[in-house]
Amino acid sequence: MQQNDDFFQRLNKHHAQLTKKQLMVAAFIKDNYNEAVFLSCVPLAKKAGVSEATIIRFSNTLGYSGFTEMMQDLQKYAQTGINMYDRFESYTSTSKESAAADNIKHRTESVLNSLNSVTEQEQISSLVDDISECSNLILIGSESTISSIHYLNYHFSRIGIDVEIVTGGEPDLFSIYKRINTNTIALSIALPRYTKTQLQLTERLIDKNVKTYTITDSVKSPFMGLKTNPILLHTESDIKFNYQSHIMILLLCQVLIDMYIAKHDNDDFKQELEKLEDYNQDFDVFYKDLF
């Protein structure tokens, strides 16, 4: 069997080998696809009317090492097609079955354990070096990653980097497009569900010979097929709300900011920070406690 066979290709190949009970599992998954991808072993067994052992044997018959590998494959296959209602329905169901705080704690610990493997990628230090030398930085995001590029923009712009944000909703992309030069750097952050607009915008920058970096979650991401400098997140597959990927991206954004600051002397930022403080004073930005 080829390793790139997806779940349903495996199911078709091994259909004749399935027992009566295993056929019940197959039938449930096919008929309740959007629900099945969110289930753990015990709930799936109950829904299909079989034992947990049958679920494990079913995954082994299809050539998987176990239930976890099978579900990861099924989730990757489904990742771009599951709509927001299915994700939210699964989220509320899971929250009722387990303590939300414990769930988030487990996911965060998993991300922290894999943080080093992400930050040790050569592209991270290369990206920081290029940001230090660039004339302007273009940050590209869409849907759930828009908040991440705004976070980077907030900090980078305050220490003197010329940053422009592209989300696909800008009324005048030409004003950004015409500023592209040989020293422009682009960073595109993409998570499922990947949007065609972000993919096309990233491709256009590459076509303009802009050195482009991408941060994405999977080797199956369409952004991995672009001629960019990819930074791959090592997070567990999760198609509900991409919890772990979002935590990792936020941490990675902070790593980029810290690495950039560490690369420069305080004097490099002094003038920009003084301008920022003058602005804060002139416009009376912050609340002052009078007591």
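the 2nd protein, sequnce then structure:
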Amino acid sequence: MKFRKDFVTNSSSSSYICEITGDTRETYNGELESSGLIQCVNEHVFDDSYVIDNFTLDQWKKDFIDLANKYIEENLSSIESRKTYNTDEEQKEYEQTITEDNKGLRKNIEDVKLLKSKKEIDDFYEQTEVFEEIESDLGSNILFKCQCPICSMKIASKSDYKRYVNKIYKLNEEKIKSEILNKFKTYEELENFLNEKD
């Protein structure tokens, strides 16, 4: 898959945390790729060096079709919710837009089913306007579950590791925070304790 590398200078910056390393990165104008980060469809943000390349075509097809069907369903459900505040004319126009969007998504699904090799994925992206709104929301090109080391269970994210430890060992976060504050009088004491070798 091709990744955009351009970004606007003199634009606003935001900070993102790599969920694998815990590093904080500055991004420009919402473009994750400007700082070497990427986001998968499940919103895991991580360094693009961790992207999985050895996924199978069938895995990629399934992820693509699942995401396309999800957006088709969301589009259809949005029609009903818009009725409460749209005028009749606005609603008619909105429904036509959704119909066209879903027609395009269904065409994408049929085209993806015809792909015979991973080499054809780049060509498919270059020849098709795919999921532009999703890419805009993500701040990067779409990265499917099969390409994400967290979704693929190749690497545990820092937050999932913490949640798992808390659940398995029945740890109470508030109790731990209180214990830290009571046990250590200065931050240096805490740092020394954490850096001690067991």
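The CA atoms of residues 111 and 124 lie 8 Å apart. The beta strands are 13-17, 24-28, 37-39, 45-47.
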